[in-house]
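User: Hi! I'm working on a homework problem where we have to compare a predicted structure to a textbook description. Could you give me the structure for the chain below?
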Amino acid sequence: MFQGVEHTAIASPDPGKLAQWYVDHLGFHINFAYAGNYFVKSPNGSILEIIPGEGSRPPQNMADNKNPGIRHLAIAVSDFEAAYAYLQSLRVTFLGEPFALGTNRLVFFNDGDGNLLHLIHRQTQLP
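Assistant: Happy to help. Predicted structure tokens:
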């Protein structure tokens, strides 16, 4: 009956601009749009819906890691060094240096609206 998460929604003051950020930076594509809402689909099939939002929120950073709610989106990559270098070439600001967590490689950064993301390369996929 239940199949899993179909998409995750992110509210943005400029949904079209943020959708394009995911296209330009992370290889997503806009697969559906209506009334100011954008669905962006990643190469592995995961989907984000970017919806109109109002107001502002404080920037997300690693110091906020204990606040309730969604903390970050993890972006899977097959080649960590190439993905990291590509984002550096696009002048993405990272929140620290890449690091290893066991056999995983990670680095945190913010998207075009300041939402917390991280690249992850898993040597061994989760079961």
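For your comparison, note the following. The beta strands are 8-12, 29-34, 37-41, 47-52, 73-76, 99-101, 104-110, 116-121. The chain has a mean pLDDT of 91. Good luck with the assignment!
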